[in-house]
Amino acid sequence: MYEYIVGTIKYISPQYIVIENNSIGYQLLTPNPYAFSMDGKELKVYTYFHIREDAHTLYGFVTREEKQFFTKLLNVSGIGPKGALAILAAGEPQKIAQAIEQENENFLTKFPGVGKKTARQIILDLKGKLQDFLGETGEDLPVDMVTLAENIEVTEALLALEALGYSQKEINRVAPLLEKEKLTTDQYIKLALKKLTSL
Question: If one looks up domain 64-138 in CATH, what number appears?
Answer without folding.
Answer: 1.10.150.20
